[in-house]
Write a sequence for this structure.
């Protein structure tokens, strides 16, 4: 247990609140900060590996300066998604790991094979386990809401 959880549990016990089994508390959906400073939940794709059409390429990362699961779309990804790509949710998969990100920017990523398809926020790249690697081979799917 972390120190914060221990302090909260101790405070709850001191004021006489009943104990709660943490296993029965549902996990909250991830919350991201909007450019305006407002916070909202980002829907996550189901845990099973996505299916359907996909785009293969490389993913790099950049420090966003703010928390959130965001990404910049490269030329091939923008063409694949079509003119309404900005604001779209995509699922980026590397092996058994996946992360759902919102496309909020573009990158002039290189077009050599294998091309760089997406530039992930540092938070998203960390979930794929690749901050130290720098560039990863990934598969990208359109996110579906279930």
């Amino acid at each position: 247990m972390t120190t914060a959880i221990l302090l909260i549990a101790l405070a709850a016990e001191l004021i006489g609140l009943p104990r709660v089994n943490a296993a029965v508390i549902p996990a909250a959906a991830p919350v991201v900060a909007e450019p305006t400073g407002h916070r909202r939940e980002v829907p996550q794709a189901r845990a099973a590996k996505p299916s359907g059409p996909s785009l293969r390429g490389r993913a790099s990362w950049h420090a966003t300066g703010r928390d959130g699961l965001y990404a910049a779309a490269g030329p091939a990804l923008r063409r694949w998604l079509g003119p309404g790509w900005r604001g779209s949710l995509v699922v980026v998969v590397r092996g058994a790991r996946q992360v759902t990100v919102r496309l909020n920017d573009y990158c002039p990523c290189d077009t050599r094979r294998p091309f760089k398809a997406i530039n992930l926020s540092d938070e998203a790249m960390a979930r794929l386990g690749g901050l130290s690697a720098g560039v990863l081979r990934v598969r990208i799917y359109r996110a579906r809401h279930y």
About this structure: Residues 3-14 form the longest helix (12 residues).
